[in-house]
Amino acid sequence: MQPYYKFSLWWIALLAPIVLASVVLSADRIRPADIRVTLVQLGDGALRITYDLKKPRRALAFGALAAGHRARRWQIETPGFALARLDDGDRITRTDGAKFDHIVLTASPDLIRIQKNYQPITAYGEGGVMVYTGHFWPLTARGGRVNTTFSFIPKPGAKAVAFGARADRLVDWRSPMAHPAFVYMGPLEPVETREVMAVVDGAAPQWISDEFYALTPRVFSHLAGALGFSLAVKPNLFLAAPLGREQGRLSYSGDALPAQFQITLEGGAWREPSPKALGVFRRATIHEAVHLWQAAARPGSDSVAGWIHEGAADAIAAETLLALGLWDAEDYTADFDRARDECADELRGGPLATAEARGRFRALYACGHVIAVAVSWADGETVSDFWKGFIAEAKSDGYTQGDFYAFVAKRGGERDFVAALRYFVRTPLAKPSREVGRLLEAAGAPS
Q1: Which pairing describes strands 100-107 and 121-123: parallel, antiparallel, or unpaired?
Q2: SS3 53
Q3: What is the pLDDT of residues 298-321, one digit of tens each?
Q4: Separation of alpha carbons 168 and 190, rounded Å
């Protein structure tokens, strides 16, 4: 992750795993779980995790997780088992190779932030913990997810919260979105508004809560109109505020899932409202909200470039700030100019197509923003208009990058522009600033 502002602002909205927002499971279509996972809240954010298998297996397979997280933060409690870190993920097996149907381990939070991925466990306010179920969900031999249920057992006096549920415990639980989810265990009580079910850290400054509850009705109403539909499920907001002692720090990180988004604020500069803090909070929160709508058009695989979603979320957030009167035309233009300049800087070391592999995550946002605006110019409408059509066009099994280019052409981007766009994405550019200008000219940049 790369800092955007000098106050160490991180934009971490994650779109690779996002799926169709309107999928809701029907109880009569769900077969009994092949694996039942029970997560018991311990102290200091740690969990005791039990896997009970309907039929014995030789291994539990898990998706890749950077920085050797599981090897460092998981401790197998059941004797005779080992965790192996492989190129495509992690495996738990018995050391004697025999099949098994039960295993217990403990897992704890990590101070090392995993780039462009969700934290498996996050300490969340005093006495609370946030869990991302995807990293504890076993995979099939083909890479799909095993038919699994989760049970969440909070500490005494705490509650488990997910979507509209808040209970002493959640037993054999499945996400209504048929997708990995965030689940909170702790003492915080959610606040339900017409737009969201919010769990807000008590350490969050009052002005942050006030701004969020004032902002979301306006943003949700605008996005519903601009993108052509309302959300099918009332989303969760989880907001943590481990501000710390660094008085000059202003760090905002956000994660998005279908019908859920999570915000973490760090740094003492959040304690009092300021134009900078207010601007960062509004821009980043609207970016995360856009992802809730974008979830209706999901990438068909992790190989679909992140710049498609991330840049568009930045661009639509800018359009929203302008439409709501929170920015004027000068603010909007200055924001695009910053994205254009940053994109050129980010492409000095290689093409956009390899930026994520090279760790140049800011390129996904800045260059994606430039591309989103260029596509809208070629289309003759707004970025929101383009995505309204693209969401409607997207296939139920997920779109490919080729589908994106095809829709650009379909919406009015002539063949020469689509060719210029492909060239811009995949080619190492000797003079990136010049090539950014050429792409915008090919799109028919307004004079």
Answers
A1: unpaired
A2: strand
A3: 787 777 899 999 999 999 999 999
A4: 14
